[in-house]
Amino acid sequence: MPEKLLEIQNISKHFPGVDALRGVSFDIHRNTVHCIVGENGAGKSTLIKILTGAERRSSGSILLRGREYNPRSTREAMNFGMSVLFQELNVVNQLTVEQNLVLGKEKVRLGFFRRDPQVVARMYEVLRSLDPSIPLGKRVAELSVAQKQVIEIAKAIASESELIIMDEPTAALSEEEVNRLFTIIKELKRQNVTVVYISHRLREIFEIGDAVTVLRDGQMIGTRQVSELGSGGEVGSTAELIKMMLGKVVAERYVAGGGGQGAPVLELRKVSNAKLREVSFSLAKGEILGCYGLIGSGKTEIARAIYGLDQKQGEVLVAGSPAALASPREAIRQGIALVPEERRSEGLFTRLAIRENIPLMNIRSISRWGIFSARREKSLARSYIQKVRIVARDENHPVEKLSGGNQQKVVLSKCINADSRILLMDEPTRGIDVGAKEEIHNLIRELARGGTSVIVFSSELPEVLNLCDRILLLYEGRIRDVVRNGPEVDSERIMHIVTGAKEA
Amino acid sequence: MKNRRVDLQKLVLVGILLFITVVFTILNPRFISGFNLMYVLIQNSFVIISACAVTLLMISGQIDLSIGSTVCLAGMAHAWLSRAGLPVGLSFLLAIVVGLLVGLINAVLVVRLKITPFIATLGTMYMGRGLSYLVSGGLVIREGLPDAFSYVGNESLGPVPYTIVALVAVVAVFLVLERRSVLGKYSVAIGGNRTAAMLSGIDTDRIVSTLYILAGAFAGFAGVLMASRLGVGDPNIGIGFEFDVIVAVILGGTSLAGGEGSILGMIIGALIIGGLGNGLKLLNVFTFFQSIMKGFVLVLAVLLDQNLKLRLGARAGARRAERSRERA
């Protein structure tokens, strides 16, 4: 066993109302690829932020090379030899590859840049060793995501990083690019660099990981050597990992709805685009259909395609007749409404009051001939505050001052008021506390009982299992399987499919 | 919450307006005379008439720098058409259409061709100015205008000058648009969150286009009134006028980023700037100082408003914290 590079001891992080991490301890050994897995909200990103100095831990200690490590800023973490490859890459698109490499490494004299030939030469050498095909003079904007990653990795190595944290580096890569990245990661090990690798895709862990730590709900579930788990591709080897990730998932609240009968209200036939591959399914009146997959599996893309935000090939039928659905306006006119993933930036007008937000998806509900009635606006808002139980001072309460759950109820009211028969709900309870989550779920069930059809796009398995009558399982833009929810539903099999561990 | 903040801000504006009124009246009692106040109002009615539409446009997060050129171009068109023998009434209307067309061009540039509003309207500003010079060969159109040309700008309906009648009518229409119309509501929504507006099915392109066209048409209206008041078509008029408009709008509490603003605030803003200019002129202050004062008041008013917001925000925060502590 190689020496310990980083010892994480009993780390906790409390946010108001949430314990993001609770007593997490594990060691990262030098010259290994250490994977961290867990569902959304398991605490992975909080852990990265603590390691890189973006957040301070609430308690516990970290030892780096046996010495206390407590970075107060990302710059300080960098000086300790810690680099991060974020999903949002930190390259400057307007500059060339060469300029990006030396950015921040220039020597300044009298306000003028002076190139340090040694630094530049070292940079080139590192980049060449990783990927000789990247031209130095090209503008970074013209490179692929994978090539941009290589530039960031090169910068990290050249600044003598001992530890590189990679946060879902393959989410936006093609298969070929993934393979090239893995070659680079293996090369990094040879160059004495330790990699912390965060991914949802279990297959990748078996391919490059040495050790894997599983987090769930902010707690450390366990650390295993990948070699002890067996080789990839075999069903048995991933089973233990999946069990660790999920814990006991039970659909305790699921009650079979009356939906699912009759002619479909929405049907997709072989819908494809840049992110989707021949997606076909149908939605019945009053049905709650789940769309489950990991980040990057195409959930949001399906919602965007239906709502007319992205181009698409293939056919969409609304209530049996073909519909182009080329814009949100058209979708709304056909009775489709979207509850977007980013509530505050896409769903709400945060500076406006509840009263002003609710009618904006269907202004005709309060206006005639282009003039609206303030009286009707007020009574409309009051009726929704009662109906969906928004907790607020009154209808004039600004939406930005509401809690996440109540904000989501305002978005829902907006959609209901648009007379929508089909609701697309993208991550309907993200960032909402447990009690309010249950309330939102109940509202969705109520709507479905009233005849509205709902598609829930979620990356939380318990949510899908609690709510949905049927569940589409997505992996890399394809529907891999459809399961009917019920007491016998096999959550482990679901995880196998959406993590790409097993062919459906 | 929001309403109270806006009211407070208007209170600050009214305070400033009262303050300069009192100061100027003490320094020169002529300032408060009915004749002088009417003069100030007429002088500033052109700014206010154009700024009504511009307020809505800026609430939606856009900007129009071509207003001054449009004012000028419409006035030139009116003079040119009247001199060519068209009935003054018809020429009046056609000149407003010229303004409307400039607005339409802005709309096409910004909405269809996706040019940044600042650049697009800067372009039409130069083109409009150039066209005004071209119409008359760079000269003032003075000779050959019918008497009726000067009528609206200098006559009165009973005791009320037609200019003031127009001012009141335009303000009334825009107050309704701002407070009661779907267009006003959508302007606030688009300025507040364009993505959410688009996802809510609002035809953002159509609304923004409408606002540009309105801004152009009312700049045309202001231009025609101004030409009639002066009795000439002058290609040098309205240089910097767009900034008088924008200053009034911003002073009135409209955010450059869009999403909030008010026509009433803009009117008070325009009167502050106008009153300041008039007062300084009555005191025979050198014109260069007037410009310095204008800039100073703008910066001061915005600064005051920002501080007020911060202070109130902090106090509200402290209150909330206290309340939650009490509960705990």
The secondary-structure class of chain A comes to alpha/beta
Mean pLDDT of chain B: 88
Count the strands of chain A? 24
Which bin fits the share of residues in helices of chain A?
25-40%
User: Could you name the CATH topology of the largest domain in chain A?
Assistant: Rossmann fold
Which strand order does the major sheet of chain B show? 1-2
| Helix count from the secondary structure assignment of chain A | 18
Ends distance of chain A: 37 Å
**SS content category of chain B:** mainly alpha
- Which stretches of chain A of 5+ consecutive residues score pLDDT under 50? none
Q: What is the N-to-C order of secondary-structure elements of chain B (H for helix, E for strand)?
A: HHHHHHEEHHHHHHH
What gyration radius of chain B follows from the Cα positions, in whole Å? 21 Å
CATH architecture of the largest domain in chain A: 3-Layer(aba) Sandwich
Helix content of chain B: over 70%
Termini separation of chain B: 25 Å
Could you give a short description of this structure?
The complex is a heterodimer of chains A (504) and B (328). With 504 residues, chain A is α/β, with parallel strands linked by helices. Chain A is built from 18 helices and 24 strands.
